[in-house]
């Protein structure tokens, strides 16, 4: 129930609805029925807690429809049929069988879109408290739409590539040369004409090549200076070009699902490791399996940007029917958390963003769990991304204020230079765990170790490099 | 006493043949000069013009450039519904049990993303680890020759059709039989009982006489349970119990328990044998005896111990003396003595029982309570064959066995199959028997199945699946139940065997069962039963029969190789390429012959790349076969040995690609009849069935004639010599060891620190002479690497006393590290890729001291030390990268592709290596291997390299690079395992201790000879053993300071015989 701790109760957290709802089954399952009017005065505070735990993932207290009808003005709509409301909340499908016309209208209107409401294990007393809260929600300053706080960089207009400019420059240059040559021709004709008139010897009819050579020779000092400049410029350009070979900064392959990181990470505050949990357990950060998506998307059936089309791709893969809110082949053997085992859906084939060559061994676990690095140190501000991409090192460096402790680097991301630059900067806290304490003890307790330790400590810190982080076989085997 | 013996790595080194000298001087013996190449006249007939050549070059360059520009899009496909226990990138381990009718081992199966990739011992059982055949059997799971579903008359069928046909046939009356090898599974036994079919068991290697002898002498039909850990003196008469005899996997580890000189005592082993076996090579005393003399040795031993009967005068004096020596030791050991004989002959087994009883050993080193091994009877199979040919068998179900290949009378059995109404095989492969059956209902691989096994005592070992079945197969137990009308799945049936009230609702709820599956076994070893009493039946006729055995000019002893066993693993390329521990030959079987006989027959005594083996025609009774001859030190003169287990798929049966020979270009060799040529030849037909009830492996009169033909053998050990240097292997005898047991390291006479002479009066005797020396440490060309006491210093100790040479480490290393299989042709060119090899050195009894005593000059003494010894002592020495702290390879690498880590690793960085091979030339241990080819892609290796088979590449370890052409590679000390151990330690916040860290080879070593750990951690095992006075560095005098230590070999022999 890691999720529970991560949720900010006053925010919109529909993402965790399904889990929360089922969690509540255990918490409130033991309540005994009591006969009390649901519209009687209840405990608003308790109601708020209950509402946030059980209802808020789908319902709002206003009339706005989230993943279910808004509860604003519920008393007007349900007023007389208290018992039916309790029944509806505790077991919607059973209540629908009662044939009540209002319930029928609800079912017709919402179930096709959002599926059946999950049966809630709440007692009539609880419902009374919830209704007290729903009818008298404390005045909360209207929260600005969180979406506006969350910038999505990929949606910003991208500047035109700059090499278009150089094409124009080249074109102009060629035109200028043609004009210059034409002018030179005209100039010569005119000179010849005037010379002829003055009866002097005409200019020789040397070929252009010869004349160019002569001209170059006459201006050899300037020409060599310009030549040197061009050669040097070419060398620099060539070097820079070659250094970009194999650099994949900004690589952002299209993905089969238009997944938006900013919506999940920023707007809904989902922790990176909720989906990429294996970064903490394995060398791979892993792409979340579809059943992880379903933890939220069992309830969240409609996205704000792309509506249902993108979420439907998850449902296709795992075999979920959003209308009925159930898995096509029934729930898995382990109850609610595991979707069916037998459904033979086509898995979502993502395009890999961070491709390391096969001869590089990299362990997320080592860096995240042992090294305590933040995801942003290598992956940048993912909460502003749409689909995943290789972050640019300069962009990462800009994050240093936002994420204290981030290590600023200069080499392009995902190059070996970048890796070892970090290994040279990153410090190891020898007191951080028993393993390093033992390493420290060995350094302290032996003569040669002492010498080594003194060398390490010249800059008052022990870096990864000093404990062997620059050795080939740390990553290549 | 210092070790002054001379070791040589083969007869060719001994004789310094010309070809050997030529090879010895070259590390890479392949160079073909440019002139030679250009003078090849065939080149002129090629049709590639200069312009075409340039076009191709231009095109390839452009294509390569374009291809390099584009970042390839890589797909990443997550699970749709991820199983909770799987995290991509994290290995899971499952306890299971291996049994193939011959080998039995408790194992842990390592899986990655659901794929089994490595098999290691299940230490929770307290039983030694799997041997080479078991740990490499993981490759068999991914054999693309496996059937993908049931077959009927050779065509694909489905299970319903097969089931209904078999049910119909079974219900049509007549005799219905199920034929298996020894069944040790209580559930399978129950299934067979429920099916009501007659059950016939036979074993490829028959051990029926052992059971019969136990029945006569003790009244119990059981296989003897040997307790090698209890034995102080072991006398084996032809039983290769360290490699292939009976439950060798178990025996090997038990034997090693009593071979630790530091414990103050060691068991002593006397071996009497015909072929040089792994056991014989590890014996303290080894005597060569002809097959016809095995029985006489047993009776002589009986005589010497009990005084009963006599075989005097029938054995030669040498053997006579050896028997007396053995008897003396046995009598001294009393109930801790153990005699065993490998021959499946009732008389010899009864004599052996009598000896053990006389010693009082019954009950201590051997007992007859209950052991379910080897219940098969070749007599029953013969009877079944008769019934079949007489048309008395209606339905025959053949499960888990292959009689058309390994039965003595395979031809008759195959012919009789035709007379049976319906024949069904459950083989995974369309093998020799299955391809002759009407139906094949393929069973699961053991890694896909549930099962239970019971050898002895009350303990039941469990088999659990580690992967879903890859193909549409069905465990044969379940098939049998389906055919007998039981609609029950195998898992439920299995559970009900162990708790009769089990219902599927309890699948996950039984805690006991879950624990049992986790541990790999249920119950305990304890087996409460009164020990059976010796009946004392008369032995007179048995002794007389044994004493009367007579041999002809040549006698034959068939044997199993420790790598190939009885041939179940013929399609396993890893095993085919693992050198036989004694001959070091890969990819073949052959005739082993004493060198004196080879010379007498004028056959080739040296096998090399350009020197193929001579072929002889061996005739047994009426059948003749032509096989190459390998001259083998330690082979009894007048005898030959041939390995069983080869020649699979001789009639073109598709038993797996690696079972067939490939030509130089990688395509299969085809014989004149258009069939693929198998690797080696099948000699199961020569198993001796003349004594009636039991078959055994000795033929007393065979004919051997030279044919004049030749045949190339791929032998790994004629190169890589140590050029006669004494500092490679150190050994001593028990008495010398005890005399200086407490000596400081470097002081004991048998492991003296090597000093190099200096021009300085070190010992202050006034003279500067050969006595003045400094330890090699004093001479340093290199800067110190800060590995000692700082951080980790990974290292290994290898105890030559307990290393048997079994080669389990070799296969484990290669599977863990994705070491390519290169095939026979490349092995012949000395391009084998073995990261870990086991050097086998024979010794001679001649020494400089003896030369001095006999007044022979030094040079003549050396020459005499090179004399072939008819029966040499053997040392097995695992040799891999020594991870020198002053590594000569590192200094010569022009691109710094091989460097030293501050943890003591000699690191090899493949992506930096440009393949100059300077490092290999500079390596004093010759352990670096060069990738001559793109093994995962080049067609030459397509038929056997696992990386080239789309299914078998699943076995590759995802944590280790698959190296490509043009780079050097070598042992990395399993750095991937070390790194993951360190990460585990950091996560737990604890120092790395021995229980966290291991190497593939140290994991696989069932005798505990190889240990791995942190030399800087004073509590680690290696830190202690490396300071032991037996520890030394190979080639210590060159001062390269390896991180691998060897432990002086201690033989339990008398002082004067060492």
Radius of gyration of chain B: 29 Å
Helix content bin of chain B: 25-40%
**Mean pLDDT reading of chain B:** 86
**Assigned CATH architecture of the domain at 143-206 and 375-522 in chain B:** 3-Layer(aba) Sandwich
CATH superfamily of the domain at 2-139 in chain A: Cytochrome c-like domain
Put simply, the count of helices of chain A is 22
Separation of termini of chain A? 38 Å
- What is the architecture of the domain at 2-139 in chain A at the second tier of CATH? Orthogonal Bundle
CATH top level assignment of the domain at 2-139 in chain A: Mainly Alpha
Euclidean distance between termini CA atoms of chain B: 9 Å
Strand order of the largest sheet of chain B: 7-6-18-17-16-8-9
Number of helices of chain B: 33
The major sheet of chain A is characterized as: 2 strands, antiparallel
Question: Given the helix and strand composition of chain A, which structural class is it?
Answer: mainly alpha
Strand order of the largest sheet of chain A: 1-2
CATH topology of the domain at 143-206 and 375-522 in chain B: Rossmann fold
Count of individual beta strands of chain A: 3
Please report which band the strand proportion of chain B falls in: under 5%, 5-15%, 15-25%, 25-35%, 35-45% or over 45%: 15-25%
According to CATH, the fold-level topology of the domain at 2-139 in chain A is: Cytochrome Bc1 Complex, Chain D, domain 2
Q: Can you summarize the main beta sheet of chain B?
A: 7 strands, mixed
SSE order of chain A = HHHHHHHHHHHHHHHHEEEHHHHHH
In a nutshell, what does this entry contain?
Chain A has helices at residues 2-6, 17-28, 44-55, 74-78, 82-90, 92-96, 101-114, 124-135, 146-149, 163-198, 208-218, 220-243, 261-267, 272-275, 290-297, 309-318, 364-370, 376-379, 393-397, 416-425, 434-445, 447-456, and strands at 320-321, 326-327, 350-351. Chain A has 477 residues and is an all-alpha fold.
